[in-house]
Design goal:
Rossmann fold, 2 domains, alpha/beta, 49% helix, globular
Length: 154
């Protein structure tokens, strides 16, 4: 009895479907997620686009408080944050994460040159501190450093 190609195709999709394929589920579980915290929407969008182009998942937040209240706080492998934002600053966010015992590799970006702040965040464990505007390659290097657990980039 001949099978219709639609029936066979449907059976194959059911057999290897994204939701039921254990290999796909495993892949979803190991996808690296990078959190981006910046009050500037254009920076969030551009950074998210870059992160996704590298094959990582990205979650964006307009404030440190929004990030701290999210489920991504527990799943983020790396944090990219602005230094100066309304409400809690990126520096205060780093301090809070450290106080909460959360070791999260952090890359700071800032439009302002403040050597004292840069020194403080690097001494507190930041993996990078970039001045806006910065080259994409510099941010990529910082992300790679963060995910490999190596020393800081400036």
């Amino acid at each position: 009895m001949p099978h219709s190609s639609g029936h066979v195709y449907g059976a194959v999709l059911t057999a290897i479907g994204f939701q039921t394929n254990p290999a796909s589920i495993e892949l979803q579980q190991v996808t690296t997620m990078i959190a981006i915290v910046d009050d500037d929407e254009s920076v969030r969008k551009a950074t998210k686009s870059l992160v996704r182009s590298l094959g990582y998942e990205a979650a964006t937040f307009c404030s440190a408080e929004e990030f701290l209240g999210s489920s991504q706080l527990k799943t983020a492998a790396c944090l990219i944050t602005d230094v100066r934002m309304p409400g809690m600053s990126g520096v205060e966010l780093q301090d809070r994460l450290i106080a909460d015992g959360r070791s999260l590799p952090t890359v700071f970006i800032s439009a302002f040159s403040d050597e004292r702040v840069q020194q403080k965040v690097l001494e507190s464990g930041a993996v990078g501190y970039l001045h806006k505007p910065f080259e994409e390659d510099r941010l990529i290097e910082c992300i790679e450093t963060a995910l490999k657990g190596q020393g800081a980039e400036t």
